[in-house]
Known about the structure:
two-stranded antiparallel ribbon, 4 helices, alpha+beta
Amino acid sequence: MLHGYRAVISPLYGDVCRYYPSCSAYAVTAVQQHGLVKGSALSAARIARCHPWAAGGEDDVRPHRAFRYDLTPHGFVVPLRKD
């Protein structure tokens, strides 16, 4: 659902998000790193913080301490490379 929103609806709004990454990108990362329940809660809290009086800025998802995967620029989970 998140990828569909990012592909279809998000481009219609343009670059209006006060935060970086956008709320939809934040939601994808939160769900991938923390699972559906906690990731959804983190995403809802982020959306609640996004209002006209918000300062905005850079707001990345705090990585899960046991997260052993990496994310591609398109939001897909890939095994962590051991370089």
